[in-house]
Known about the structure:
The chain is of the alpha/beta class. The chain has an 8-stranded mixed beta sheet with strand order 3-4-2-5-1-6-7-8, with helices on both faces. The chain has a domain at 6-34 and 111-246 and 255-261: Rossmann fold (3-Layer(aba) Sandwich), CATH 3.40.50. Strand 7 (166-174), helix 7 and strand 8 form a beta-alpha-beta unit. The protein starts with 5 loop residues before the first strand and ends in a 41-residue tail after the last helix. The protein is globular. It has helices spanning 18-31, 61-65, 91-95, 102-112, 126-134, 146-161, 182-189, 201-209, 213-216, 221-234; strands at residues 6-10, 36-40, 76-79, 82-85, 115-119, 137-142, 166-174, 193-198.
Amino acid sequence: xxxxxxxxxxxxxxxxxxxxxxxxxxxxxxxxxxxxxxxxxxxxxxxxxxxxxxxxxxxxxxxxxxxxxxxxxxxxxxxxxxxxxxxxxxxxxxxxxxxxxxxxxxxxxxxxxxxxxxxxxxxxxxxxxxxxxxxxxxxxxxxxxxxxxxxxxxxxxxxxxxxxxxxxxxxxxxxxxxxxxxxxxxxxxxxxxxxxxxxxxxxxxxxxxxxxxxxxxxxxxxxxxxxxxxxxxxxxxxxxxxxxxxxxxxxxxxxxxxxxxxxxxxxxxxxxxxx
Length: 275
């Protein structure tokens, strides 16, 4: 899959670990030396805004889509090789946005970074469907719960409606003693299984610590799973110590020079309450 560089991370509903997956896949690839941008395309219910220290007048994707700023103005360095483009949290700013400008923003990021991850909002709306068609491929996120699997099916249908392509399925919050294998879930959805991320208390700890799990505890089961999925996407060999921890189932980073954005490079805080 290494020819695909822009991925939309999508789910039919919130609370399945979509933002956590976006951040950890992006961070894992950045650790491997890839240049990565993660973009919050959930314009109404922003998640990634919590990943950078923004002043009230800081530039966000809302400003870009309102044609008041460039995508570079809304790009914040998180760590080596990785940047974030957060959406704003103000409803007034949201009212001024035009999602159609997202295509140009993504095209610009595509030329500057090796991988771009679009954190897509849940539900059915124009701003939700649009990123599914702009991405090279969509990664569908689901838990093993039947309701979540049904919502994942709707995401696949939306992707088809947007003329997008689905890369495969990531199942989160899995338990080794489950009666259902994750390959069976993927088969139900007629998708390839990219990976299964186990339920891992350390994942929640990392959220509250404000650090991606693959940095907070790189040897934890969920971190190992995220690194393996990232390696699969990039077409590279996963770290050799990953094998025993897999769940068993069949610079172009932009330095921020403006004074009001000095803290952005080191501030990584909670973006999603569900790992």
